[in-house]
Amino acid sequence: MLKKNSIILFATTFSGIFFNNFAEATVLNNSHKEVIDHVWQIVYRDFLDSSGKFQKSNWIELRKEFLSKTYSDKNEAYDAIRNMLSKLDDSYTRFLEPKEFNQMRIDTSGELTGVGIQIVKDKESDDLIIVSPIQGTPAYDAGIKARDKILSIDDISTKGMFIEDAVKLIRGERGTKVKLEILRGSKSFFKVLSREKIEIKTVFSKTNQTKNGLLIGYVRIKQFNANASKETRDAIKDLEKKQVAGYVLDLRSNPGGLLESSIDISRHFINKGVIVSTLSKDGLKEIKRGNGQALTNKPLVVLVNEGSASASEIVSGAIKDNKRGKLVGKKTFGKGLVQSMRTLVDGSGLTVTVAKYLTPNGTDINKSGIVPDIDVKMNINPILQREIGTRKDRQYKAGEKELINIIKVKNQISKYNPETTNLNAFLKINKGNKVFSLN
User: Fold this and answer.
1) What pTM did the predictor assign?
2) Domain containing 366: what range?
3) Looking at the domain assignment, is residue 260 inside a domain?
4) Mind listing the pLDDT tens digit for each residue in 227-261?
5) Sequential DSSP letters for 168-231
6) Residue 64, Cα to own-chain centre: how many angstroms?
7) Residues forming a β-bridge with 215
8) 224 contacts 256 by C-beta, under 8 angstroms
9) Within this chain, do residues 322 and 398 fall inside the same structural domain, yes or no?
10) Are residues 216 and 365 in the same domain?
């Protein structure tokens, strides 16, 4: 459930207390103010403002305002922190109480507890929006979709509700139920979901045989957690032994995860070239490239949709811009911001936006998403889980068709002998197979 409670790419660090040069450290008279000031200091030093509205002078005044008050207990301090962070106009920078923070760390390790959704708060509409249901979870099985809005939780309206409060209501003991009121388009409806502890395998792989006998390696990545890179590596190595002719990489409804995981997985397919570049608030640019250790150079198609976000967009953007493969499906979610997860002095936590990322071509996809090479809608009628990644899956079918075309062209080029073959005839025959797009 709620791996990030918003779409988050973590660059995980631990942070102690620090103070800035603009003033000497304030003597804090209780631990509640210490936590408030710790959050303030992190934002002051590291926050990347994507809205253009953040002013350090205003933030300094806020510190004086919040530290001048008295807080009788931690709940008052936590409410003050949330109020302070609401001034940032960034739904991805948020505070987590100790239990929530611990759960988030568990989530990124590959174990999920709850109903299996990630949510984000839309700053303009104030809506709680579902980024994506996680495959194999109660939410997914109940038909919850990306972009669904949560109107109420157990009959409590979500209007004006903090994400943290929504998390508290949705989470609960295993086996208990939660009722969500969902708005999809102009229609609202209720879904009653069972809370479960879910241990999901991050990567699923298999071989599919085409009608003309080609073996296709199908790899579906559900999340970019700590296990994803190794599981993907193992899957590719196994499929290489089976001598597949090409790959369909399925990143649909994958809400993202760890930044390093997305880079490592990109390197499994991309031998050389830029994977992603990140820009900090100070304009410092860090570029990640292929490391010359790709596991395969075989033809590749990537499936994406509206629920492909964050780390999924890093991988798909790298593959598209490096012309390593083709993207098939629908435009991705559009989340191009990087968060760092920080431990606070009392065991609570903060996720703070520290950078934005650009695709290899320098494209900032935040809020705009990545447009696939081939636009294909999903099936009008829902398909069974076991039918995902088969020819009953409309987007997969289109992806497999494109992959077959690429494989055919590659094989024809490899057989071409300039001393014995008529080049003009070859180009004329293969014009329809996009021979000129293979660089």
Assistant:
1) 0.71
2) 203-336+354-403
3) yes
4) 899 999 999 999 999 999 999 999 999 999 899 99
5) HHH--STT-EEEEEEEETTEEEEEEEE-EEEE--SEEEEEEE-TTS-EEEEEEE--BSTTHHHH
6) 36
7) 209
8) yes
9) yes
10) yes
